[in-house]
Amino acid sequence: MKQNKSPCIDQCEFAGPKKWCLGCGRTRKECREWRNLKPYDKATIEKQLKQRMAKMRKAGMLSDE
User: Fold this and answer.
1) CA torsion through residues 22, 28, 29, 31, sign
2) First-last CA distance in the chain
3) How far apart are CA 35 and CA 63, in angstroms?
4) pLDDT tens per residue across span 18-61
5) Reduced to 3 states, what is the DSSP secondary structure of residue 15?
């Protein structure tokens, strides 16, 4: 069974009203529970991360590198 690798990029800073990580888009709770989540739950979160990062980029929370 394929194991979902963590989306963490070691730029952990939680900001904004939802306290999403500026590096990967996860919440502190999602980061903390990542290892114990079922593959389906990880895949669901990973799909949401693209949308979250786009929202943060649009809000000017992320620098365009």
Assistant:
1) positive
2) 35
3) 29
4) 999 999 999 999 999 999 999 999 999 999 999 999 999 999 99
5) strand
